[in-house]
Amino acid sequence: MTRRVEIGWPALGTAVIAELDERNAALAQSVWDALPYRSLQGHALVAGHHLYHVAPVHALLHQRGTHTVDRREAPDGTLFASRLQHLGIKYGELTEPMPAAPIGQVLPEHLDTLVESGAAIWESLYRSKKPIVAEVRRAGEPGGHSLPRLSVADPQIDALIGEVHAETERIWLSPPEDLADLHDGHIPSGAGSFSTVLTTLVFVNGETRPLGYACFGGLVRAAYEDMPLESLRHMARLLAATPAEFLGYCGLGRLHEFTQRALGGLDRISSRDDFAALMAHLALYVNCLGGWNLQLFPWHLGDGLRRKGALG
User: Fold this and answer.
1) Which residue numbers delimit the Cucumopine synthase C-terminal helical bundle domain (predicted)?
2) Model's pTM, two decimal places?
């Protein structure tokens, strides 16, 4: 069966078609099953010519790719599914030697459009700060958007998941007010020594990304890899409490509140599946925050700091 995916950027008036393949069949199927959706489009800030966005696909957190390649050596236009909950597309030179799971390829006739779109998305992230939304759909079918909602047995934990899901939906395509305030310099706690703001922004970015990628996402993987439930509870308390508290101090109060309630309710959870569901919703929420933080961050302040020997 041919499975073609259209990835479009309405703000740019561009779109490309990619064909999914069987190199990582389960990952490709998970993405296919989640279509259609929309997401804030991001761009690599360290690795090079690479686009990625947070995909609302819980399975990406724990599904392991059966076939990986060095992204640097993959053809331009390769689609990747990442356990960081990203759908990525290589469109030029990459420098980071990261093993990645390919799931498809942009059609050759659309590669020029991909490069054009990549340049515009970089400008959006680095300088103009005008968000660009990616629309991902099955080629030839209508678009749309929804975020998956998992359920668990305990009513209190299920209600918390409902709140996290609702908040994630609310901020999915609109900048969260607390992050926007932080980037505007409104920090009620006074975080930022001697009234600095950039220092706080750097630390918020440095804590938010690993909290979603490594902590909550890692706990989902651990649950699916059969770590005992009591060990999962213990690791969640060890890994999540301190960064969430710090981020709350910096202005992300809702994140801190959700994390406190989740950690406080861990003893109510009676199965690894329910634990994984709670952590998956927290991961998606924090990964969404992380995407917005990257979009809002004033990267252009680094114009005067260039790699030695860099051409541009």
Assistant:
1) 157-296
2) 0.96
